[in-house]
Design goal:
This protein has about 240 residues and is an all-alpha fold. The protein is built from 13 helices and no strands. The two termini are about 35 Å apart. The structure holds a DNA duplex (13 and 15 nucleotides).
Amino acid sequence: MTVLGPSVSEAASAELAGTVRHVLRLDADLSGFYEAAAGDPDLSWVTAGAGRMIQSPTVFEDVVKTVCTTNCAWSATKRMVDAIVGHLGEPAAGAVDGEPFGRAFPTAEAMAEAGESFYRDVARAGYRGAYFVSLARSVAEGEVDLESFARATPDELPDEELEDRLLALPGVGPYAAAHIMMTIGRYHRLILDSWTRPTYAKLAGRKSASDAAILRRFRRYGPYAGLAFWLFVTRDWVD
DNA sequence: CGTCCAGGTCTAC
DNA sequence: GGTAGACCTGGACGC
């Protein structure tokens, strides 16, 4: 789809508007979450309209990016994603190559065709390369339908089952599954990692906090526990 | 220059 | 079901 060229067709314009609505989660109804947060002094601020987690146009993109956050510094995450998009993504017509938004995130087909050498020698993704090849291949072949995960309602695909499906993906463990679930609007699981744990403890005024204690703190939010936890630890990103 | 580790996961007990 | 060890990479640190 051409979105940066001299003109934009009506169809492309409508498609783009839909993608923007999706990425910015404009149709999300968070009233249930706000209801619970209103009575929590530490989180009542969110009722002003916080909590619309940005998401990628596709679940595939969020899975790949999330795996790129595991077991490495944020700088490495950006380097890997930049390489994947820059070398495998389709250039947007009219865009100046190398500039932000100049390329779309690659399709599973493109990522599958790249092969392990690309991930090892160019993206320098280390052991994650095998995960990307395996993941991209199974998505490209239709063996795994990641996009259906975002479409399915909790009735059709309960959190437990969704989490199991995500955990079955190469490179996806408890942290990544929770992260991916958040991006597709399943807010129950808490994203517990080496950054959120100490950040929570610090903000809560404790030396440390066990996972069990953190889970207890946000239990009152039920299906929104993960969202409440995330906003608690990222509050200073908003203000 | 060696060690540690960062927004973890996998495998083998 | 729970827990050590290994695992790519590169930037930060101590020596």
